[in-house]
Amino acid sequence: MKTIIIIISALILVSSVYFSERNFTMSDSQINKDSTKQESEKDRMLKKLNKSEEEWKQELSEEQYCVMFEKGTERAFTGKYYDHHEEGIYTCAACGSNLFSSDAKYNSKSGWPSYFQPYSKESINYHKDSSYGMVRTEVTCAKCDGHLGHVFTDGPEPTGLRYCINSVSMNFVAKEK
Fold this sequence. Notes:
This protein has helices at residues 2-22, 41-47, 53-59, 62-70; strands at residues 88-92, 98-101, 105-106, 114-115, 124-129, 136-141, 147-152, 162-165, 170-174. The protein is built from four helices and nine strands; from the N terminus they run ααααβββββββββ.
């Protein structure tokens, strides 16, 4: 069992590197230039809704805070929305903004919930992310700047995009019947 976990982890790492190297990152004109500001990115994120670090820590679970404001990630295939098929809207776990519709959700087999487009153009901000020896495009909530995940260019039609999102960064509001 331990060998299988190691092999799966290695495959996920190799595929992440492979896809990040073969996918272009979004152009500089598409990525927010916030990194040039004097204050740290974490301070900017925490202040966007005028909440202190302590207030965010009280409102969010430890894992949500780690992912959304320290740019962590949840383990592949463990998120509550990875295999979720109900109709509705996925909202930001920190501020409640609409992020993705279930109509744009698909199974990318990446281990994280995937969408081919956001709820609206105004829902998401884009940032260049060159951590872990890769160049990727990070996506954050436009309202609170909470880290959601990354967007890649290996998605399905009609956009060709794959928004790979941490479940812990979202809540779900079911469509009324």
